[in-house]
Amino acid sequence: MDAFLDAVGAFHLLRPLWLLALLPVAGLWWVIRWRALTGAEAPTGIAPHLAEALTVGETGRAQIQAIDGIAAVLALLTLAVAGPTWSRVPNPLLAQTAPMVVALEVTRSMEAPDLAPNRLDRAKFKILDLVERRAGARTALIAYSGSAHRVTPLTEDPNLLRSMLDALTPEVMPQEGDNATAALELARAELAKSETPGAILFVLDELSGTDAAAFEAPAEEEAPVLFLVAAPEGSPRGALDRLDAEIIQLTADETDLAAIDRAAASAYRAALLGDERLDWDDRGWVFGWLAMPLLLLWFRRGWTMRWAVLLACAISAQAPTAARADMVDWFFTPDQQGMMAFRDKEFAAAAELFQDPMWRGQALFRSGQYPEAADLFSRIDTPEAAFAEGMARTRNREYRPAIAAYETALELQPDFPDAEWNLAVTRVILDYVESAREQSDTGEEAGIGADDVVFDNEAERGAETQTDFSEEEAAGEGFQTTEQWMRSVDTDMGDFLRTRFLQENATGGAE
User: Fold this and answer.
1) Taking a C-beta distance cutoff of 8 angstroms, is the pair 131, 257 a contact?
2) CA dihedral defined by 189, 193, 195, 196, rounded to 10 degrees?
3) Of 70, 69, 12, 60, nearest to 282 (Cα)?
4) φ, ψ at 148 (rounded to 5°)
5) Which DSSP helix (H) or strand (E) runs through 13?
6) Identity of the highest mean pLDDT range in 158-167, 194-203, 267-276, 406-415
7) Phi/psi of residue 248, nearest 5 degrees
8) Mean pLDDT for the stretch of residues 140-155
9) DSSP for 197-211?
10) CA-CA distance, 424 to 418, in Å (whole number)?
């Protein structure tokens, strides 16, 4: 219903002057119809009263005539040419759904076991389910207790969110408390970095009265705030009941996720409608399809127009097989077919269909074909293409070429916040990878290793080494098994977050 109301409110015509063509169509229909009604004459040579008795039905008043169908088809085609639209064409470099910032309460009360295994773990599971459901959308994670901290920026990578979520416990938080106001401010600041406004989701068990004022009467331009209550029904919810906001109860099924999806989708539609940089999506083809059934009326007995349709079908049937296009190609361009596949998340098929290079590159990227996407983007001389090339190369672990691509994007468009952010992050990743390799090769860190992993090491830091241990031999030689290594990574991540949160708290907040 929300989508329908949004569409009705945004409906307009891209080429409204074409509506003037309805005047001659209406005139033609009236003239021919009038002649049909008045042109029939009573039989001659018969007395009028006998002729009237012998006539079946009313002379000249056929309910449906050929001109009615023709006029209806011409009217629908005129509306199609006028360009009806009620939505915008999404930018391929932006997410297909609204970005979302998830603020998770990480407090002692969230460790209550009334939701097995406990409230916090159930909340984590639900967040992961939400991320998987919103595949392709960007999600950021904030953790808060007495202070609020950004755990991950807006990202499409569920693995990054999963590793960070697993490490979040009350022990890593620098202060005890329940400062939802600080989390809200941090969430809004994170969304401000996105070109497309999104939504904020608070996952908590209750809201304190001191924080209620921050959530009351938000400004019209501010992102909508949703609440997912990670507590059993009937549990105290604090000031939540006083808010005029969408409050969703955590459920065992996906009912809660569906409600969150609807709210996020509504925010995305509103964002697209208000973005003047995006083109309107011409939906004239809808009226073209509506005109198709009316053509079937031309087969009615006595209507000579049917012969034209039969002749066209006969000509097409006699044409060589190679010259006959697929029926879909009669009505949709390759880019339109690619867009349909893209919206259905059939990205590999969309990549084969798209002719537009940017959309084709985006489809290749979404389908995991990162080298092909990077190669395609590298041939397009725009800042958006250079940025997309950097993302593809980063996903393919080509960190130095990715840095070069982001630098190119900033040369072409100095004011490009996303490129600046990705450039900084990629530089940090490259430095970390090369430092880890260097330390591993010099023996500064024992027990760090990986099988069949190739790092970007163009700086030639460290030496090339190769190990040929089985897991059992490695354990016997003092190395870590895969399971031990994964546990150490989780532990290290918790230590990393604790240290980072303490530093942010000491310097006055998250960056």
Assistant:
1) no
2) -40
3) 12
4) -115, 140
5) strand 12-13
6) 406-415
7) -115, 130
8) 92
9) --EEEEEES-B-GGG
10) 10
